[in-house]
Amino acid sequence: MSTPETAAARADAAAESVTGSFGHETLGIRATWLAWIQDPHRRPQLPWSEWHYWWQAHLLDCLVDAAEREAAGSGDGASAQPWLTLAQRHLRGIRVRNFGRFPNMFFDDMAWLALASQRAEGLARRLTGQGLPPAATALRGLGKRLEAAHTDDLGGGMFWNTRRQYKNTATTGPAALFFARAGDRVRAQSLVDWLYETLFDPEQGLFLDGIHVPRKGEEPSVTRDIWAYNQGTVLGALLELGDHGPANLGHAGALVAAVDRELTVVVAGATGTTTRGRPLKAHGGGDGGLFMGILARYLALAAVDPRLPESTRAIAGRLVSDTAEALWRGREERHSKDLGRAPGSAAANGPRLVFPAHPGDLASSSYPHGPGQRTAVELCTQVQAWTLLEAAHRVARGN
């Protein structure tokens, strides 16, 4: 496990690389900010360009992580202010790019942005005594939408999108955490209980993807895919609810153990004979490029939660640290000519770090860039690496 100082320096390097490589004004509008979905980006941003709402939500979470890290390091809020300012610009950028509103048709997307906005608003109030106006606006609208997605169909749980044909862990987990943090603990507990009753696989000790609303005369069908991020948000909700339900902390410990057993890989040393830790399993690029990072975010909370047994905290901390260490070892420093940026652009000033999509790999294998080939670096995997390095810093500092 790295020292808090080393972990902080690594997280800061990831923060500077991601924001410097991908960040830009939204549609050229001042006082806004958004991230390209790849580097180099293929074309000027247009109102119909791909932008991945939910990737931006997790990027906002990372901006809050950076602000928290700076505040913890300095003991005051002044050093966190640049990150809070960027978070405010980012929320404005999301709203502009989403055609002047925060809601969209996917309730899981909205849950992610609601969680990140909740953290941004709370941190701003703690550090400055004032909130973050765009975050407060997002919370008002998104909270109402999430409440409407929670129905008695199939016994409870949250719909995935506005078509209301599928309920899943990907929405129910983060929504439960959001409601718990908002003080609606009864609703949050009912969502967690529904997940255990409906989408929990007792053999693996993990949560399945979701359940389809049946057509007339049919039975509900369960999608049995196991994804890392679904385990993370349920873990977060269990920790946030704590003693509200008598089984919550016990469930949290069992879930950490199941993740350690089912969702890890062995990474060997250069000779192939020396074990270099057992990091979390990654799910590739695209949307899967965020799954491992989301799980690590909540494992870090478990690692520093004094209500959990010491053995559970140690497992959670090791999973985060091993994964962060593997990603850090696989990093590569690239300059603007390697990344395809225009000379003189804001992102062209100095080298940037690129992280692999999978722990144990090299960035050059995830994103080759040799003569005659250049694979664009995805925002999702770089936000995932940043998330992990911030999580490792939380584990290293112990709170």
SSE order, one letter for each helix or strand: HEEEHHHHEHHEEEHHHHEHEHEH
Sheet/helix structural class: alpha+beta
Give the number of DSSP strands. 10
**C-alpha geometry:** globular
Average pLDDT works out at: 92
Radius of gyration: 20 Å
Beta-strand residue percentage? 5-15%
Give the terminus-to-terminus CA distance: 15 Å
Q: Could you name the ranges where pLDDT drops below 50 across 5 or more consecutive residues? A: 270-275, 340-348
Describe the protein's architecture and organization.
By secondary structure, the chain is of the alpha+beta class. It has helices at residues 4-22, 53-74, 81-97, 107-128, 133-149, 169-181, 185-198, 228-241, 248-262, 291-303, 310-329, 336-339, 363-366, 379-397, and strands spanning 23-24, 34-35, 38-39, 166-168, 200-201, 206-212, 221-226, 332-334, 352-354, 377-378. It has 14 helices and 10 strands. A hairpin with a 4-residue loop joins strand 5 and strand 6 (206-212). The chain is globular and about 60 Å long. The two termini are 15 Å apart.
